[in-house]
């Protein structure tokens, strides 16, 4: 036969109290929020890495075009500055077509900010080409003024 003390001990060990369940749910929620934050940061970093890869590919793409048309590159036919308006350049022969197509690919692949992004090509007297691809990556920085990114490639022609 069960006495009152034995019966009370059995009832006290039946299961979780509401307070214990609430504490467990709070701890689980904090952990899941932390995982969601990590996922968001991972997506931002992956997008920025994709833009950087695209910029590198675009820079080396125009390097190949310069090497394929060395005489025009050495004579300055490919020289353009950042912020250059590439509209209508495609009518200027092979170099103009290359620049126009290159700018079109930059605009398709990378996020742009009017007047501050795009590409530049400069070939100096030592036949050294400097290619810069610049884009606007607001995900890479919390400060919008610090969101301009660029890749510079220097090569000998």
Topology:
Elements: H1 4-12, H2 18-68, H3 70-74, H4 93-109, E1 118-123, E2 128-136, E3 148-156
Antiparallel strand pairs: 1-2, 2-3
Helix pairs in contact: 2-4
| Cα gyration radius (Å) | 30 Å
The class by helix and strand makeup works out as alpha+beta
Order of helices and strands: HHHHEEE
Shape: rod-shaped
Distance between the termini: 100 Å
Protein name: Type IV pilus assembly protein PilV
Pfam families: N_methyl (PF07963)
Keywords: Membrane, Transmembrane, Transmembrane helix
Describe the structure.
The chain has 157 residues and is an alpha+beta fold. Helix content is 52%, strand content 15%. It has four helices and three strands. Strands 1-2-3 form a three-stranded antiparallel beta sheet, with helices on one face. Strand 1 and strand 2 (128-136) form a beta hairpin. Helix 2 (18-68) packs antiparallel against helix 4. The longest helix has 51 residues, at 18-68. The model has no long low-confidence stretch (mean pLDDT 83).
């Amino acid at each position: 036969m069960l006495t009152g003390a034995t019966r009370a001990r059995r009832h006290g060990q039946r299961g979780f109290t509401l307070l214990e369940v609430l504490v467990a749910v709070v701890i689980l929620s904090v952990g899941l929020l932390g995982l969601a934050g990590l996922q968001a940061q991972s997506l931002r970093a992956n997008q920025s890495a994709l833009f950087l890869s695209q910029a590198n590919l675009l820079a080396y793409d125009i390097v190949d075009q310069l090497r394929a048309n060395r005489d025009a590159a050495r004579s300055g036919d490919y020289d353009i500055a950042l912020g250059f308006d590439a509209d209508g350049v495609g009518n200027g022969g092979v170099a103009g077509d290359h620049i126009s197509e290159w700018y079109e690919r930059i605009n398709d692949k990378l996020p742009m900010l009017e007047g501050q992004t795009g590409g530049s090509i400069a070939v100096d007297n030592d036949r050294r080409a400097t290619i810069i691809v610049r884009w606007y990556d607001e995900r890479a920085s919390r400060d919008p003024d610090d969101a301009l990114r660029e890749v510079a490639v220097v090569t000998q022609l």
